[in-house]
UniProtKB/TrEMBL annotation:
EC identifiers of the protein: 1.1.1.65
UniProt-recorded name of the protein: Pyridoxine 4-dehydrogenase
Cellular component, GO, one term: cytoplasm
Start and end residues of each NADP-dependent oxidoreductase domain: 22-321
UniProt xrefs under Pfam families: Aldo_ket_red
InterPro entries: Aldo-Keto_reductase (IPR050791), NAD(P)_OxRdtase_dom_sf (IPR036812), NADP_OxRdtase_dom (IPR023210)
Protein source organism: Malassezia psittaci
Keywords, comma-separated and alphabetical: Oxidoreductase
Broad class of enzyme this protein falls into: oxidoreductase
Organism superkingdom: Eukaryota
UniProt-listed CDD domains: AKR_AKR8A1-2
Amino acid sequence: MSGKIATRNLGGDAKDVSVGAIGFGLLSFTWVAPERKLSDEQAFPLLLEAIEQGATYWNSGTFYGSDDPWANVKLLGRFFEKYPEHIDKVTIGIKGGFNPTNNLSNSESTEENFRRELKELKALLKNKPVDIYGPARRDTRVPIEESTAILAKLCKEGLFRHIGLSEVSAASIRAAAKVHPIATVEVEYSPFSMDMENNGVLQACKENDIAILGYSPLSRGFFSGELRKRSDIPQGDIRLMLDRFSEENFDSNVQLTDKVVELAKSISVTPTQLTLAWELHRYEKLIPIPGTTKKANLLLNVKSGSLSVPSEVLAKFDQIADELNAKVTGSRYNQHLNSSLEQ
């Protein structure tokens, strides 16, 4: 790979797969108000830039579309059809498992449902294989050992390459890994969301050599240093529905980030860069997957993958992060969305 940032390997039976230390979350390309959805002419240059910079793990989903749940996957299909020379340079992870696809309250981990999705993914992506696949949320009606065995069967058939899990408990990770090697576990991770360090998920991944994909690593913009007022968030943005961005919580939460802003200034980097660099330091197989639709932000993100931060600054950030995680108000999502998370 000719990228400009450091690389990290995935886990499980994908331990030889090397990707950029900073990945690329693609949700914001298509899961937005229709007028804000990126056209191919807008999206393709960003994807090409990501490859050029070495951000070669791309995170997508079968439900990443505000009007069409397959919109994100379709965009990827068109991209790789136009640029087949990049097929082998990019590792894509795709979450799914809902039935119907756009019903995010019904996770269904049956062979029939997984096979249906994988057949559709094959048709849309054509010559680009699905590298990582798994359910976005745990179907608690199906034992994790059973759903993992189903995924292992479909993987063996060549429908995808490696199993990825998302938002699962430490017990589920350990149980699944006994059935089949797990390549990745996706969790929300930022100084406002350090659950994985306290609920056993990080330890379970370490024990089983599993890479962690940290989504919303800037806490959906709180740690970018640019989001200062709730009115900065455009109407229709999903953040306006989330607890931490509510009118009663936003101001106090954004003020908590001031210490990170000041610490970043002390070493002449941005809050984004320092936050991502700190996350990389927490686990050698953690890959933050920030999303953006702007080239300037993409370049800022990937530079974090090769940033050298003094150990004393990282130690200070450790202390700040513990304090912020304890003081942040509001849950990660809202009452409805929180109900889909495995405790």
